[in-house]
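queue> pop job 88
queue> type: inverse folding (structure -> sequence)
queue> payload:
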């Protein structure tokens, strides 16, 4: 604690910082602590999104992904109010800070903000129904975690019909705690699933 207080005093002399005590809420992030674990989620932020979109009374969904994604690449029918879709995607992008389970589909839908269709909007609303099913889902960081790194990756080969590009997903765990994740569309066009993995490595 002496070292921590020394650093705080040093920072305060340069930047005039405040020490609000134990962190509980910060920019939509809710932090709960015990002696064994730290839990981080965005429950209130998720509720605010549902309320803003008028979906507090909607039926929860057990899945976040709709079955047919081919309709995403159709140009019609266009959504009448594109700004509402853009706002929703912006809110969902921030929610992926604690919800890596929706990162892939949100990343996919974010690529159609210029001219969204009704299918894109329906898919975004389906994500909200999935979020409603488990509002407090987030991260758990355990005190007695093993210092052991594990990485997992997956891809959807040539999922984009016009460009034939693939999307890669990556998760890295420290013990049982997720510490890094990413979903990214590849620039290189691969002719096989093996090449996708090779280029990613």
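queue> result:
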């Amino acid at each position: 604690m002496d070292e921590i207080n020394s650093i705080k005093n040093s920072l305060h002399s340069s930047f005039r910082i405040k020490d609000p005590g134990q962190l509980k809420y910060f920019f939509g992030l809710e932090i709960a602590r015990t002696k064994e674990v730290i839990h981080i989620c965005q429950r209130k932020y998720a509720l605010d999104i549902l309320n803003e979109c008028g979906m507090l009374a909607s039926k929860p969904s057990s899945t976040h992904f709709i079955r047919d994604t081919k309709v995403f690449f159709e140009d019609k029918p266009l959504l009448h109010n594109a700004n509402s879709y853009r706002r929703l995607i912006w809110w969902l992008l921030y929610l992926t800070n604690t919800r890596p389970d929706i990162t892939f589909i949100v990343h996919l839908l974010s690529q159609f903000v210029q001219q969204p269709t009704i299918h894109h909007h329906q898919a975004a609303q389906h994500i909200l129904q999935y979020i409603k099913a488990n509002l407090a889902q987030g991260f758990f960081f355990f005190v007695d975690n093993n210092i052991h790194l594990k990485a997992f990756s997956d891809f959807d080969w040539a999922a984009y019909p016009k460009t034939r590009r693939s999307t890669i997903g990556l998760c890295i765990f420290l013990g049982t705690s997720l510490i890094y994740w990413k979903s990214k569309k590849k620039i290189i066009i691969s002719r096989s699933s093996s090449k996708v993995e090779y280029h990613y490595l």
